[in-house]
Amino acid sequence: VQLQASGGGLVQAGRSLRLSCRASRSIWSGNPMGWYRQAPGKSRELVARIRSGRDPDYVESVRGRFTISRDNAKNTVTLAMNSLQPDDTAVYYCYTRIEGHEYWGQGTQVTVSS
Question: In the Cβ-directed half-sphere of 62, how many Cα atoms lie within 13 Å?
Answer without folding.
Answer: 25
